Amino acid sequence: MGKRIPALIDVKIPGPNSGQGFDRFQYGDFCVSQFPVLPMIEPVMTEIRNAQAFDALAIASIYAEHVRSGTASFDTIPRKAEEMAQKISGIQARGWPFLVAERGGEIVGYAYATQFRDRPAYCFACEDSIYVRADRTGLGIGSTLLRELVAAATVCGFRQMIAVIGGGEPASVALHSRMGFAHAGTMRSVGRKFGRWLDSVYMQRELGEGDSAAPEREPG
Ligand SMILES: CC(C)(COP(=O)(O)OP(=O)(O)OC[C@H]1O[C@@H](n2cnc3c(N)ncnc32)[C@H](O)[C@@H]1OP(=O)(O)O)[C@@H](O)C(=O)NCCC(=O)NCCS
């Protein structure tokens, strides 16, 4: 087994829908073999691309793991692949980003941004959701996905991004802090899962011009 050294490669690849400039990215790390004489270095690439309907099963499976074992989501029952497929198409139909991370031909994580709340005045604020396959955490995949989601949500015109972190999961707090999010509040004991009361931790960062300038259009 080799030792992984994260994020030494950062290659941007224009994709077929590259009008917005963010539809395909590849990142990588190296798997350094411990062969005693000649160390072999093989690139292990992470590609970020827009989610497709056929990714729904893998996405549902990643989400199910975290629903069953973690507090990041306040869902207690996993969602079906069909529901995930509808979510992908619904989010993309609104022009919002739904990205997947692919590594070695497998979907290892996903992230999407949706309007924070439905009312029109919230139209410049989005909420991110991000999940990495449980056996692939700690490899930089979450950071890569969130970096691209921030870029994509900025292109969409969102000015603020908010993370609502169930149970204040330490990995999610660390990830969002790393990506420039600041603590924006904690709602105490609003959730109940695994026989425990759970807080919701809010973190927030600006996108693009943030609130330093008015948007080009006002909400209708
Ligand atoms: C949160 C999550 C997306 C992070 O993905 P990841 O691929 O492991 O993230 P990275 O490897 O890019 O690590 C990001 C940062 O988090 C830190 N981190 C990772 N796991 C951690 C843990 N269990 N505790 C504390 N910090 C942790 C890393 O050290 C890194 O910080 P650093 O660069 O300053 O060292 C992933 O753990 C996950 O899917 N968790 C369950 C779902 C969830 O919490 N989603 C967020 C909902 S808002």
CATH level-1 class: Alpha Beta
How far is the first residue's CA from the last residue's CA? 57 Å
CATH-assigned fold name: Aminopeptidase
CATH superfamily label: Gcn5-related N-acetyltransferase (GNAT)
Q: In oligomeric terms, what are we looking at? A: single chain
Radius of gyration, Cα only, in angstroms?
18 Å
Helix fraction? 10-25%
Structural class: alpha+beta
Give the biggest sheet: 9 strands, mixed
Q: Can you count the helices?
A: 4
In terms of topology, how is this protein built?
Layout: E1 3-12, E2 24-32, E3 41-50, H1 56-69, H2 81-93, E4 98-103, E5 106-115, E6 125-132, H3 141-155, E7 160-166, H4 170-178, E8 182-193, E9 196-206
Parallel strand pairs: 6-7
Antiparallel strand pairs: 1-2, 2-3, 3-4, 4-5, 5-6, 7-9, 8-9
Helix pairs in contact: 1-2
The structure holds coenzyme A.
